[in-house]
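Predict structure. Chain length: 411.
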Amino acid sequence: MLSTIRLVLVGFAALSVGLPIIFISAAKFALVVGALAILLFESRTQGSASSLRGLWLPPAILTALAFMALSMMWTSASDQQAAQALVKHAKLITIPILIALIRSRREALIAVGLFAAGQLLLLVGTYLLLLGVPLPWAPLRTPERVHALFSSYLDQSVMNAVFAALCWHLRELPEVRRWRPHLALVSGLALICVFFVFPGRTGHLVAIALLSLAIMWELPRRWRLAALASPLLALAALSSTSEKFHARFSLMTAEAHAFANDAVINSSTGLRLNLWHRASQAIKASPFVGSGVGSWEREFARLEKLHGTDSAVDLRANPHQEYLLWGVELGTLGMLLLIAILAAAWRDSLLVERGIRRAQQSVIASIGVAALFNCTLYDGLIGDFLCVTLGLVIALGRHTPAVPQASPSSR
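Prediction complete.
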């Protein structure tokens, strides 16, 4: 009975990240409450070995969240703002929960399969919208949702890039070996969406990073240094072949020059650069332990008022940079904690089979790159997607025996 409940909770969470945000919220609530009940019951009735044993990532996440909770003692935010921010950061807890609830390779594969079904729904929906097919279940189209199904183009472009990487690397699993050509095709279709359908620059950069990693891993070791040129070659190729890619990056360059020369902030790039500038000022004001969880909005408003606020500027709820957000809230220690979470996840990936290791490292790399330009983990939907994806891949690796590598020289 408990195994069925666990599988339902995990499966719903895995599928939900390909559905509208209301399903993600419901699945996350059910996952947390259900996990607490199951783990509490098991602790009283049986002494099973923990699925988290030996991992560095869960302690890193719990340490960061504990420090965030402690920072409520000195935060400049109101109690409500601090509590809301803590809850948004706390989605990280879904990673160890998923690892703890998945107890076998069969359960991990079922969860990954449901995850893939949800992502295929997004991918197929995008192509149907691109072909002009009306979808009754798709929300009202807006400029940010022209071809994205349930979220903005920014979110779905990152999601498609990560899904492409997972399809490519997990095609090595014995259970899906006969589907390898299909998985390669899905990976290609997802990348086409990223580069030629969606204008999201963060998604472009994430996809370029994941493509560069995949190329590096496919090359013999003696040629891997040459893979460092892959991002530059990809940028050059895409700039000449993708009109959306070229237009967005040309616009970004122009907006950056306008900000540097004339302090123009009523543009996407200008607004982001202004947010980063204010975030760095806030960190400088409280460099060691920050202004406390949830303090960004008040600190930003204070600095804008201090330096003169343009009433036309949209005051955002975060600085559009995950590292800076943690720096504002928790100081340099907070930035180190975020880096420690990514480093711990990378260290844990070194212990598993090659295909899963590369899939896991691709998810970690996507978080690290996307966090440079958005509050990827803090934001709803995309943050939930990345946390659930990382949890599922780690759980799959925990229940897959590592196989000896072919030879040091061939890979």
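Summary: The two ends are 44 Å apart (CA to CA).
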